[in-house]
Design a protein that fits this description.
The complex is a heterodimer. In chain A, about 60% of the residues lie in helices and about 15% in strands. The mean pLDDT of chain A is about 90. The model of chain B has no long low-confidence stretch (mean pLDDT about 90). Classes of the chains: A alpha+beta, B mainly alpha.
Chain lengths: ~110, ~300
């Protein structure tokens, strides 16, 4: 479990950029999406999502905007920035290279 | 919102130590998250209390969340680092370039320091304000030192007016700073041990002020250097994210500058005086943490 937590911690920025890159999202929605799409693999303390979002916002990869719903409820939606899109492209390529290299080592070679 | 969740948000707020507007936004964002989650848990059949405690469990420790959010926000830009280091830099240059004898330079510096302190104070107390605030209290300290050299029959001025006024001013500004974040109070008080160290090293025993001014003249480059070292410390402080690193930088810098005072004054600062100064420096830099805790407990008791 601790190992999984470390893996998630190391990849949280890529995961967030990827999700927000597809459509603007708010914190609670991100948690649900991560859980659903990963079939429960990406589960972590929900409060720790916000430091990651704020860190990405501070470095200009995403931008948060408050929106008021017709019900009067407010939500802070995060949008990806141009800088964030460039970073996402780079991160995707790094992940693909990493996964390809990992597969070469981990998967048994077919004779 | 239930008491459990209100306490949770209060605990996050207490440990955030951000400026008022950032703090408000963070808390509002967590509130909207909690409301949504609470609604969903209640729709799933949980009672209000069960939903609240489940929600707190899912969010994780309030202290940890607050600390991580603090680290996400705490790092200042290079511009802010330069602005925060500026008063130390100017004070250092005042001595290195021998401008400290020019009344025009001193007055200019005083006006700049006071203007920046007032501007920062009314603009939400950003990190860069606190070194300026520390120097804006310098005239109070200098006035106190000069009172020491008044004829004895004038000592009632100090007792009746100066001491209560100076203590009130120092206390109220320090407490307000500690309420923002005790580390900023330490940042504000950072140059004080160095100033006391230099004062003790150049202390006149006779022929004030000629002898005193001559000694300052002799040590001016080293005095300047010690304040330039403080400027580097403050810039580093602003760029760091983690609180323990910020505390370490302040303490190490205090030790380095006091060692510089002892080294460059070649024994004018005795070993006991040096050791006492180190203790004073540690008290000045670390006691705001205790004051903050006391203020918080007092606040919680009065709220209860």
């Amino acid at each position: 479990m601790a190992q999984r937590r470390e893996l998630i911690k190391g990849s949280i920025d890529s995961l967030l950029l990827c999700l927000i890159g597809q459509q603007p999202m708010y914190g609670y929605q991100i948690i649900k999406e991560l859980k659903e799409r990963s079939q429960g693999y990406f589960q972590f303390k929900e409060g720790t999502l916000y430091p990651a979002l704020h860190r990405l916002e501070r470095v200009g990869l995403i931008q948060g905007k408050w929106q008021t719903l017709p019900s009067g409820q407010q939500r802070k939606y995060y949008h990806i920035t141009d800088k964030g899109l460039l970073s996402l492209v780079e991160k995707r390529s790094q992940w693909q290279d990493f996964l390809a290299a990992m597969n070469l080592i981990i998967q048994p070679a077919s004779e | 919102m239930t008491t459990v969740l209100s306490h949770y948000l209060d605990s996050v707020r207490e440990n955030l130590r951000l400026d008022v507007s950032s703090e408000g936004e963070v808390i509002h964002e967590l509130e909207t998250h909690i409301e949504e989650e609470l609604q969903e848990l209640k729709e799933a059949g949980l009672s209000e209390e069960d939903a609240a405690s489940t929600c707190v469990g899912l969010l994780g420790s309030a202290r940890m969340v607050a600390r991580q959010i603090y680290e996400a926000h705490s790092q200042g830009s290079w511009g802010q680092a330069l602005l925060a280091a500026m008063p130390h830099l100017l004070f250092g240059l005042l001595f290195v370039l021998n401008w400290w004898r020019g009344i025009g330079w001193l007055l200019g510096m005083l006006v700049l320091v006071l203007s920046m302190a007032v501007y920062g104070w009314w603009r939400g107390k950003p990190t860069w304000l606190f070194p300026w605030l520390g120097y804006s209290l310098l005239p109070v300290a200098v006035a106190g030192l000069l009172l020491l050299y008044l004829p004895p029959e004038w000592s009632w001025v100090a007792i009746l007016f100066y001491i209560p006024l100076a203590l009130w001013l120092l206390f109220s500004i320090t407490v307000k700073t500690i309420r923002r974040d005790w580390l900023y109070s330490s940042l504000m008080l950072l140059p004080l041990p160095t100033i006391i160290g230099w004062f003790l090293a150049v202390e006149p025993v006779h022929n004030f002020p000629q002898y005193w001014l001559q000694r300052i003249q002799d040590f001016a480059p080293w005095i300047g250097l010690s304040f330039l070292a403080l400027a580097v410390t403050v810039a580093t402080f602003v760029r760091l994210r983690k609180r323990w690193l910020r505390v370490s930088v302040l303490v190490v810098s205090g030790l380095i500058t006091l060692t510089m005072v002892a080294y460059y004054t070649e024994g004018r600062l005795s070993v006991p005086a040096f050791l006492i100064l180190i203790v004073v420096m540690l008290i000045l830099l670390l006691s705001p943490a205790l004051v903050e805790r006391t203020l918080r407990h007092a606040g919680q008791k009065s709220a209860a």
